[in-house]
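Hi Prof. W.,

I finally got the Integral membrane protein prediction working! I wasn't sure whether to trim anything, so I left the full sequence exactly as given:
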Amino acid sequence: MTTRTDLTTRADRRTARLAAVLFLVTWVTSVGALPLYGGSSYDPATRLAGRDSVLTASLLEVVLAVAVVGTSLALYPLLRAHGRGAALGYVALRGLEASVILVGVVAVLPAVARPATTAAPGLSVDVVDGLRLVHDWTFLVGPGLINPVNATVLAVLLWRRRLVPRFIPLLGLVGSVLVLGQNLAVMFGLTGTIAILVVPLFAWEISLAAYLLPRGIRPAQPTPR
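And this is what came out:
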């Protein structure tokens, strides 16, 4: 006989699988969009790619923003029993990250197209460069600065409550420090991007997704009376 607890456990596992898939979607879309814009970010010598390429990249970033919010909404019902404040904070920070991403998408689209037409927008090179610069800054602020903060919030909760193996949140904490530090240095013009520093944060989300897919998150234990 199937009990209510069994049904809840099954629903939680489905929700955890959804969160895992959305984590993978965020990485596929963010990595896939970058070359479509015309090359590595923050390089003033690289020109913006053509209309179709930029439109495809922008669509990927829209999907990215939706997936970013989706991860937090999927995890919230699984995390709130372990720490409601941290779970809400994670949702809020992911929403903020997605908002910044969408600002960048909206900023760069006028550089290559007008709505409902294939006609060139007719903007000057300087205007196009300015729009791309806005997009570059939103990429730095959103995935570059806000993402490490929300990753830290989630990693600390998972670590303190032992909801997943300890090495997974440890990767998140180390990766967050490296990515945040690198992007602060980029922000102040002290260095360019160093791709290898992103590896621990990438490994954190991939490891978390790989764990959530088959196992989910440990349910909250009842408080003894």
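The mean pLDDT is 90. Does that look reasonable to you?

Thanks,
D.
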